[in-house]
Description:
Blueprint: H1 14-21, H2 24-35, E1 50-55, E2 58-63, E3 69-71, H3 85-97, H4 104-111, H5 115-135, E4 141-149, E5 166-174, E6 180-187, H6 193-203, E7 209-212, H7 219-223
Helix pairs in contact: 2-3, 4-5
Bound molecules: zinc ion.
Residues 42, 44-45, 47, 63, 65-66 line the site of zinc ion.
Amino acid sequence: MAMNRIQFHAGLSLPAFLAQFGTDEQCADALEASRWPQGFSYPGCGNANYYLLKVGKHKTFQCKCCRLQTSLIAGTLFQSTHLALSIWFLAIYLISQAKTGLSALDLKRQLGVSYPTAWLIQQKLMQAMVERDAKYTLSGNVQADDAYLGGELAGGKAGRGSENKVPFVAAISFNSEGRPLYIKMAPVPGFSRKAVFDWATADLAPGCIVTSDGLSCFAGVTDAG
Length: 225
Ligand SMILES: [Zn+2]
């Protein structure tokens, strides 16, 4: 799913969003440009010669060589949707702009859809975000530190050794100007060299430059290359 290439940046006002993505046609064009920046080519054979059909609301492409068909929304999270793309885009915009999350009830009100529909939209978008997050690896300059999540329980040890806390690696990637780009918080079984090795293998792009506060387990990053 290539939605990540359609940028709804943080400062985009609602009127500016509606001017760019207010109609189904604008949303379809944005989705097509996002999926096939160099123009459509059939996913199976790579052929760029196609017939354009319209099945229901959505553009359908038929490859001229193998005659197979695929649609603009096939293989995306909008596949088999009955909702207009403009409703989906507005939902993505609203969720991306909400600083403290958006309930299905909020979505229902703001999109003018039924509660079950709003709930389904929310579930699909959250799932897509989780999957995208899981695939994302930090690259470039990365600062990593050990962190703990959890409350203080009476009688527990304080600090790094506390048994009441879940250990995390918190890592932030920075651009060349030193501005933060992405953050990833990953629970780890503990701060062993092996745990940090596994974390680095999953969450870091090869060759990135990692700085940390020097806990010895962070040598696991070097082990992972
Ligand atoms: Zn073909």
